[in-house]
Every structure is written in structure tokens, then in C-alpha cells.
UniProtKB/TrEMBL annotation:
CDD domains registered for this protein in UniProt: AdoMet_MTases (cd02440)
Name of the protein this chain belongs to: Protein-L-isoaspartate O-methyltransferase
Pfam families: PCMT
Recorded family membership: Belongs to the methyltransferase superfamily. L-isoaspartyl/D-aspartyl protein methyltransferase family.
InterPro entries noted in UniProt: PCMT, SAM-dependent_MTases_sf
Keywords: Cytoplasm, Methyltransferase, S-adenosyl-L-methionine, Transferase
Keyword Transferase: yes
The EC number(s) this enzyme carries: 2.1.1.77
Amino acid sequence: MIDSSRPANPIAARARARMIEHLRKLGIRDETVLDAMNRIPRHAFVEEALASRAYEDTALPLGFQQTISQPFVVARMLELLAAGGRALGKTLEVGTGCGYQAAVLSCLSSDVYTMERIAKLLDRARSNLRPLRLPNVRLKHGDGNLGLPEVAPFDTIILAAAASKVPEALLKQLARGGRMVMPLGTSSQVILMIEHGATGGFKETRLDAVRFVPLLAGTE
Ligand code: SAH
């Protein structure tokens, strides 16, 4: 799916392979997630001045007071969504940012819908994603608290910004048997995993401590 007409960048490929080894050492085991992260050029999603740091395991600034998430946290959340080798199916991502995680998701999900509340950031994500020619990623400008009722239900939902409570609309848009992962909390946050039972009911599990930018309301 990645456009092979772009010149390969061996330095970036080596740095990326080291990042994958680091993720393995930290306990990421899901080969489909590791393979997806090995395919997506993270350096193409950050500003040129930061490109040399793109494969460090750290969050990096994106402008607009937002950050591209730390690779370990991206891997951990995607591994939770894919737990047990489940296909991700139709995915909603809230918080497109620079588009990096959406690109990784495109390797794992049949369809990716990604929402961003800041129009200028969505434009940047669109131009970052264009050269990769990922046919299954759709970008939407809007408030992710509301989800995309016209496209729901989603098999998987992932939030890249922290909320103090689970957005009600998103729970309604999670298919039966589906899974959602999100950072929950304000000053102290954890990853929350929500499983929608096959016959109804929601099971919540609180996992690792994390630090994300806040989920805000409205658009700009
Ligand atoms: N997944 C991104 C990380 C983005 S950081 C990446 O790979 O780069 C979180 C993003 O969530 C920010 O861009 C922020 O503007 C966005 N965001 C915050 N609240 C939102 C909301 N209610 N709806 C949609 N996007 C939101």
C-alpha cells in the first residue's frame, strides 16, 4: 500500500528498525502492530527540524499545542485493540493530529475514519498522508466527542486525547463485540479499555498510566 515510487531512505529504515526492537524490549508482542509501525515513515509526519528525532520513543510537538504520541503508547493502544489477533475492522480515531497513527491504523483496519477538531492540523495530516496513498483512510473535520453517527457502528474506537469521562456518543457507536481504548483522566491519566459484549453490556479495564493532551469540545 505504501507508494514504492518514493525513494527509500535507508537511514530512516534503520532508525525505524531500532525503534521496533526497542518496542519489543518494552514488551510489545503483536507482530501485526510491530509490522505496521515498521512500514510507516514516522519522520514524514513531523517537522523537518524534528525528523532526526522521529524514531526516538518520545512524544514530539506538532504545533497548535498538540503532540504526536509516543511510539510505545501508540503500540500499546493498538495492541490492546488487536488483542488476541482480532481484526480491527472499521475503526474510528479521535484526534488525527499529524496523521501518523491513522497511517499505522490503515495497515491494521479495513476502514479508518479519523476526526480532528483543528482544521489547519487536519490539512497538514492530509498532506502528510497523501504521498502514502492509503485508500482506506478518511479524514473528517469535527468534534470527536460526537463521533460519526452516519458511519457507525465501529468495530474499534481509539482516542488520542484524554477525557475526564467516556464520551456517551462514542459508546453508542461501538459495535457489539467491539473495543474502544482511550486515555481517561485530567492531571493523572490511565488507558481505559472498554469491551462491548456480544450480547450487550460494557466491560471497563483500567491499564497503564499515560499522559495525553486533553480532549476538547467544538472545532476551530
Ligand atoms: N494520533 C495523533 C496524535 C494527536 S494528539 C498523531 O498520530 O499525531 C491529539 C489530537 O486530538 C490533537 O490534534 C487535538 O487537536 C485532537 N483533539 C482534541 N480534542 C478533540 C476532539 N474533541 N475531536 C477531535 N480531535 C480532538
